[in-house]
């Protein structure tokens, strides 16, 4: 990954930090819902993400919101979001900041 790709990746992460799970007052990145984020030199972005539960009420809308947010970052040419369930999400995937915000620390 070039430095430019790394900078673009950081900008995409900052954009994703504005997306929140509607039931939890922490952004999806800090919650650990983003499993992988890859940027190729052409600006194509591949995101692997999960939800807190397969029964999550935003299963139909949250991946689209993630795609739309990532697409707003200058330099992004295309975004593909893959929703995965393996490995299952657990609270251990949350960042320290998220655990602190939710009172788990």
Structural class: alpha+beta
Chain-averaged pLDDT = 91
Main β-sheet, spatial strand arrangement:
1-2-3
Q: Strand share of the residues?
A: 15-25%
Q: Considering the protein shown, what is the CATH homologous superfamily?
A: Fe-S cluster assembly (FSCA)
The count of DSSP E runs of length 2 or more, i.e. the number of strands, is 3
Major β-sheet, in short? 3 strands, mixed
| Rg calculated over all Cα atoms | 14 Å
CATH architecture: 2-Layer Sandwich
**Could you say how many structural domains there are in total?**
1
By CATH, the topology is GMP Synthetase, Chain A, domain 3
What is the molecular shape?
A: globular
Q: Count the helices. How many? A: 4
**Low-confidence blocks of residues:** none
The CA-CA distance between the termini, in Å, is 35 Å
Which H/E pattern describes the elements? HHEEHEH
CATH C-level: Alpha Beta
User: Helical percent range?
Assistant: 25-40%
């Amino acid at each position: 990954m070039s430095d430019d790709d790394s900078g673009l990746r950081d900008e995409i992460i900052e954009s994703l930090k504005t997306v929140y799970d509607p039931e939890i007052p922490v952004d999806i990145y800090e919650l650990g819902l983003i499993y992988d984020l890859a940027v190729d030199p052409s600006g194509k972005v591949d995101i692997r993400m999960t939800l807190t539960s397969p029964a999550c009420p935003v299963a139909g809308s949250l991946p689209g919101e993630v795609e739309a947010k990532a697409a707003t970052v200058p330099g992004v040419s295309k975004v593909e979001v893959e929703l995965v369930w393996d490995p299952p999400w657990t609270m251990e995937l949350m960042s320290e900041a998220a655990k602190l915000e939710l009172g788990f620390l």
